[in-house]
Amino acid sequence: MLFDVSFTSASGSPEYICGLASRSEKLGFHSVWMAHDLLWDNAWVICGAIARSTSRILVGPGIVNPYSSTLPEIAMAAATLDNISAGRSLLGLGPGARLMLEEGGVAQTHVIGTLRAALQYLRDALKPGSKSLHIDIARRIPIYVGCQSPKLLECVGRWQVGAMPLLTPPSYATHAMQAIRRGANTAGEGVDRQELIASILMSLSTNEEKSRESFAKFIMSVLAHLSPHQLKEVGFDSAGVTDLLKTYAERGWAAVPEKVYRLGVTDVETCVKSIEVASRAGFGRVKCGSPLGPDKEEALTILANRVVPHF
Questions:
Q1: What is the mean pLDDT of the chain?
Q2: Phi, psi of 198 (to 5 degrees)
Q3: What are the residue ranges of helices labelled H in the chain?
Q4: 150-159 and 173-186 are packed helices; what angle lies between their axes, rounded to 10 degrees?
Q5: What average pLDDT does the segment 219-240 reach?
Q6: Does the domain made of 2-310 have the CATH classification 3.40.50.410?
Q7: Burial class (CB in 10 A: 0-12, 13-18, 19+), 61
Q8: CA distances from 161 to 156, 158, 219 (A)
Q9: How far apart are CA 238 and CA 257, in angstroms?
Q10: Cβ–Cβ under 8 Å, residues 133 and 75
Q11: What is the DSSP string of 220-251?
């Protein structure tokens, strides 16, 4: 099992995130991802800074979408990042969060067709000898599709591309893998474990109460963007989400019900068990995502010293 880490604008300043990436490299993590959420910090800029402050760890945006950026712009950025990092770039591609796009005045339409066309273009553009860009490309830049819905997961298997599904809850790993394999079977192909990344939201700390508070604050900020298919796993429907957001606004994190914490992990034991579930399902990598914990450096150390050794 390989371990990736990911950060968002909520993780801290760009300078602080670069420091976390350097720390992640020293702790032996495989890759570092930076969220590219519309109207927040630009992941490409931060990934470039990370590339210049590290020497081994792979780096990429997780994820960019073909709605708020054109495909040539995405290809240009990915190729440039690969050259700056001496061949260490990754590309996370997905539909983006519909509500976030709408906030920026961007419409999300024809999701499957748009992603399929984007993947076809980027696969051709981001390979050695490509004529799509006026940039030398030394290697095929790996692409991973980040998504949540069963339909898109099945498409990922059919398209034979790397997968990076957000698993909220982590127990959804088995269902996600079944969808990916259905798509792969339709294409008459298999799946490569190392190209399947289980994305799990986690908060780790030596202080369990602070760990849970950190997780609650983050998950409530993204709850409206999560997959209804997955939320059903912990007993949420759309009305329940609306009611909870209202309650949270009025009473704070202490009012968050226990089932919300099952959308990720907030302690080492649950973290290990959740990754074991993902591994048994067929995932060969895990992306350990924000918020990571109230103290990000402490969380990375806990992850490296108390979780990774189990695998």
A1: 96
A2: -85, 115
A3: 14-26, 43-53, 71-84, 98-103, 111-125, 150-159, 173-186, 208-222, 228-231, 238-251, 258-261, 268-281, 296-302
A4: 40
A5: 90
A6: no
A7: buried
A8: 6, 8, 28
A9: 16
A10: yes
A11: HHHGGGS-HHHHGGGT--HHHHHHHHHHHHHH
What is the CA 18 to chain-centroid distance, rounded? 18
The closest alpha carbon to 194, from 119, 142, 155, belongs to: 142
Q: Is the pTM of this model over 0.85?
A: yes
Token pair, residue 44, equals 């490409």
β-bridge partners, 145: 93, 163
117-135: burial string, b at 16+ Cβ within 10 Å, e else: ebbebbbebbeeebebeee
- What is the residue extent of each domain of the chain? 2-310
CA gap 255, 170 in Å, rounded: 22
- For 309, the token pair is 């050794």
Q: Is the pLDDT of residue 266 over 90?
A: yes
pLDDT 10s digits, 16-28: 999 999 999 999 9
Determine the angle formed by the axes of helices 208-222 and 238-251, rounding to 10 degrees. Answer: 120
What pLDDT is stored for residue 279 in this prediction? Answer: 98
Q: Phi-psi region for residue 133, left (φ > 0), alpha (ψ -120 to 50) or beta?
A: beta
